[in-house]
Amino acid sequence: MISRRQFLALSAAALAASACRNSSGLPDFSGELRVLNWSDYIDPDTVSRFQQSTGIPVDYVEEYNGNEEAFETLFEPTLGRGRPTGFDVVVPTYWAVARMLERGWVRQIPLERVPNHVNIEPAYLGMPWDRGARFHMPWQVGITGIAYNPALTGGRQLRAVSELFEPFLRGRVGMVSEMRETVGLVMLTQGADPSRATRATAERALERLDAARRDGQIKRFTADEFVDALKSGEFAACLAWSGDIIQLQQERPDIRFVIPAEGGIRWFDSMVIPARSGGSAAAADWMNFAYDPANAARITAAVQYISPVLGVREALAASGGASARLAENPILFPDDETRRRLYFWAGLDSATEDELQERFSAITG
Considering the domain boundaries, does residue 317 fall inside one? Predict the structure, then answer.
């Protein structure tokens, strides 16, 4: 099963080796491009095709388990102390990229080596923390919405996050363990805009989550384990990531995914070059390769998240078969009306978000 976030532990030995690879703290590049990404977030052939096309060997590591964990176990111990991470490309979620930029932990992309930079969907060129996308290039885009099994909801079609708090679902509801997504969706049920989050609106949503967890409405909070919980029947309904459910539907077409009536949370993970990486040229070549529409289409067909690369829909349509059918998928290619109902989490400084994360973690256990 292809999923976005399979929880694998980062090896302490590997981290120590990365931190010590160049004890001087100077950029170090051995000629091998080292890429750190989430698990199951690429097609089977892109790495080998890139190596054949460029002659650059790649060590592709699928051990990026979560943004909070990455800051604690990788970025702070290395970048926070002026040392290289041992990776030339890492793929944090957009808010984590903004935090890294704020701390000076990201190198500017050598755009002269990335002619395919022109293929970035314009929506991702206007991020206030990196206008023009000079320091990041989105890898994939996802939607957090509702997944449910109609057989376990009595045939009832769920349309709103507010329905997850109704008594008939007590003890059979899952929430995702990403604070900005779960809290943002609950904020929408309370008439608050997560793209203009405030401490007060976030805390009100946290209070509702805390009450729902204490009274047994919420069974548990998960990363991509919601896939197994839906399959087993443990969850009748849950918050879920779009790409994981599109993949699950190949095996379980009865499982539904909907963008809630209140709106969905949109997020994206971005490629960045960590500070003190000596492989920025090779990293730029990797980014350029990934942004060729034909290559990006292969990745989309495998992971089935929204591509930030212009031309992917046309490339999928031209490829025929199952890939061509994906070109008509409204979740992968949402129309303008749907896009207007998707929200990015934004508006709070990192210190406030850290405090909210601490409270959220106490609720989720």
Answer: no
Report the domain count for the chain.
Answer: 2
pLDDT above 90: residue 63: yes
| Distance between first and last Cα of the chain | 26
Element (H, E) at 153: none
Q: Crossing angle, helix 280-290 and helix 293-303, to 10 degrees?
A: 80
Res. 307: pLDDT tops 90: yes
- Judged on CB neighbours under 10 Å (0-12, 13-18, 19+), 349 is exposed
Tell me the residue type at 236. A
CB of 149 closer than 8 Å to CB of 229? no
| Range 212-222 burial, b when 16+ CB lie within 10 A, else e | bbeeebbbbbb
* Predicted confidence (pLDDT) per residue in 29-56, tens digit: 668 999 999 988 999 999 999 999 999 9
Q: Is 90 a residue whose pLDDT tops 60?
A: yes
Q: What is the mean pLDDT of residues 114-119?
A: 98
The domain that holds 166 is classified in CATH as 3.40.190.10
- DSSP H helical ranges for 64-178: 67-70, 76-78, 94-102
Report pLDDT digits (tens) over 197-239. Answer: 999 999 999 999 999 999 999 999 998 899 999 999 999 999 9
Asked if 162 and 44 sit in the same domain, the reply is no
Backbone angles phi, psi at 73, to 5 degrees: -100, -20
Residue 34 within any structural domain of the chain: yes
Parent domain of 21: 12-136+272-291
Q: State how far the alpha carbon of 106 is from the alpha carbons of 50, 53, 75, 109, 320, in Å.
A: 23, 26, 11, 9, 39
Say yes or no: 212 and 227 in one domain. Answer: yes
- What is the distance between the alpha carbons of residues 266 and 275, in angstroms, rounded to a whole number? 27
What's the mean pLDDT in 298-317? 97
Residues 106 and 189 in one domain: no
